[in-house]
Every structure is written in C-alpha cells, then in structure tokens.
Specification:
mainly beta, two-stranded antiparallel sheet, 1 helix, 6 strands, elongated
C-alpha cells in the first residue's frame, strides 16, 4: 500500500453517498482556421479535430468502464525520486499497452 492507496487498480467511492469518482470523456472538438501563403498570396481553410481533456465527474453506479478505474503511479523519475500521481486508467491505456506500468 503506497501512501494509504491500495496497490494495483481501484475505484474511489464516497461511502456516504455511494458515488464513484470518474474521469469522463471530454468529447471531440472540431474547428477550422484560415491559413495564408504570403508568397503565392493564397488562402485556404484548414479543418481540425482533436479529443478534449477528460472531465472529472461522478457516477451513481459502477459500469466497469475504464474511466472509473484508478491507480497510484509511484515510479521514480530520471533523478531517482519517487513521484506519486493518481492516474485514471482510461487516459493512459492504449491497445496493446499494459497498465499500470511496473
């Protein structure tokens, strides 16, 4: 147990209300902007899409989704010092990548 947190993955639950702490998906942001080529004196519109940051929220019942799973990352940095970070599983997981790293 690191700093009072359990090893491995866990859920954070308020026992009085029964609510689960979750990092909900932030959605998708789309937009466009004008790009100008000053040498050729042309303008074009560039469209973009990116994923928004996660939003901290509450869930009323467990769904088994990654956004309700947490772990404490206590790996040492490049100077050998331990840094304790509470990390949401959904934000760090990628297909084929084992998490949490050890």
């Amino acid at each position: 147990m690191s700093n009072g947190f359990p090893d491995g993955e866990f859920c954070i639950i308020n026992e009085a209300t029964g609510l689960y702490l979750a990092a909900l998906p932030g959605g998708t942001i789309t937009g466009s902007q004008q790009e100008t080529d000053w040498l050729e004196r042309t303008r074009e519109t560039v469209h973009y899409t990116h994923t928004a940051n996660q939003v901290l929220g509450l869930a009323t019942e467990p769904s088994g989704k990654n956004y309700e799973r947490w772990f404490l990352d206590d790996r040492k940095n490049s100077w050998g010092q331990e840094h304790y970070h509470l990390v949401n599983y959904a934000r760090t997981s990628a297909p084929g990548t084992p998490w949490p790293p050890r």
